[in-house]
């Protein structure tokens, strides 16, 4: 048996050992990296095009203009409301009260042409300190009137703490002054102007049934049947005239939105709600 010293000095020739052989491999030359000029030119030509590409979403689905309020990190309710009167434009609300205001305005105000959420920020001076104010909404109307709207809860506006009440009053005065300085009308809305029944209930029904997926065939039948209704018609008469009693309320709301009828707003919309038929030249196209 071979000893350890024999194995170390290579003097062992037992069958269990063998001579280590080394193979000489040629060393490949290292290539230095050189940029591809053609690809660099293509990248440079695309850079101005990429910079000019808009980063904001399309206006119809943007929600808000100057800042994104529907994102993580915010406490409280945030929402987005598509408005049928503005062709489904999505309007963001920083509170549930602001979303209710958007619903009510879309349902009741026939003169609006555009609503912009969080349109821009204005510099204001509150108690000697410079600050910035972002209105909840900018409303544009057919007569050219533009107004900035701030939606606040009554408990915030009419607080019992004297110092807090003075600060809120100074804020509202600063809002109104900044709006007037830039050519806008200022309006403060609370739940007393928004959550009025049956106005809010009817606004939610109008929003539900004014989408783009209604049956146009049934709507055309309802328009043609208006001339055969009783002298004092109710919503249920529309469904009975076309043989679709379940769709009476939906059709009445759509006819009201198109201007063919005028529902009674003093009560909650139902199958017993009375309405009057408008002159034929006042109705809009479907």
Walk me through this protein's architecture.
By secondary structure, the protein is α+β, with helices and mostly antiparallel strands. It folds into two domains: 60-194, Trna Endonuclease, Chain: A, domain 1 (3-Layer(aba) Sandwich); 214-282, Winged helix-like DNA-binding domain superfamily/Winged helix DNA-binding domain (Arc Repressor Mutant, subunit A), CATH 1.10.10. Helix content is 37%, strand content 17%. It is built from eleven helices and ten strands. The chain has helices at 4-8, 37-52, 59-62, 96-108, 154-157, 162-181, 191-194, 199-209, 216-225, 235-242, 248-258; strands at 79-83, 89-93, 112-117, 122-126, 129-133, 137-141, 146-151, 185-189, 261-263, 275-277. The strands form four sheets. A four-stranded mixed β-sheet has the order 3-6-7-8, with helices on both faces. Helix 10 (235-242) crosses helix 11 (248-258). It is extended and about 110 Å long.
């Amino acid at each position: 048996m071979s000893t350890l010293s024999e194995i170390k000095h290579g003097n062992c020739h037992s069958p269990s050992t063998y001579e280590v052989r080394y193979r000489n491999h040629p060393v490949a030359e290292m290539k230095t990296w050189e940029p591809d000029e053609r690809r660099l030119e293509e990248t440079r030509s695309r850079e101005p095009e990429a910079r000019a590409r808009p980063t904001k979403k399309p206006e119809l689905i943007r929600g808000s203009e100057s800042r994104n309020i529907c994102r993580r990190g915010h406490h409280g309710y945030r929402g987005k409301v598509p408005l049928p009167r503005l062709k489904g434009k999505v309007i963001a609300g920083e509170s549930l009260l602001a979303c209710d205001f958007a619903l009510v305005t879309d349902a009741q105000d026939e003169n609006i042409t555009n609503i912009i959420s969080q349109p821009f920020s204005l510099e204001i001076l509150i108690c000697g300190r410079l600050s910035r104010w972002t209105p909840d909404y900018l409303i544009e109307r057919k007569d050219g009137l533009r107004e900035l709207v701030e939606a606040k809860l009554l408990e915030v506006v009419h607080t019992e703490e004297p110092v807090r009440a003075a600060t809120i009053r100074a804020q509202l005065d600063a809002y109104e002054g900044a709006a007037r300085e830039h050519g806008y009308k200022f309006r403060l809305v609370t739940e007393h102007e928004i959550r009025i029944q049956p106005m809010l209930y009817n606004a939610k029904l109008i929003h539900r049934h004014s989408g783009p997926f209604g049956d146009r065939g049934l709507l055309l039948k309802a328009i043609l049947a208006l001339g055969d209704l009783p002298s004092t018609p109710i919503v249920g008469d529309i469904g009975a005239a076309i043989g679709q009693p379940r769709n009476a309320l939906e059709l009445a709301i759509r006819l009201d939105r198109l201007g063919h009828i005028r529902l009674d707003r003093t009560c909650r919309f139902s199958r017993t709600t009375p309405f009057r038929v408008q002159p034929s030249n006042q109705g809009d196209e479907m």
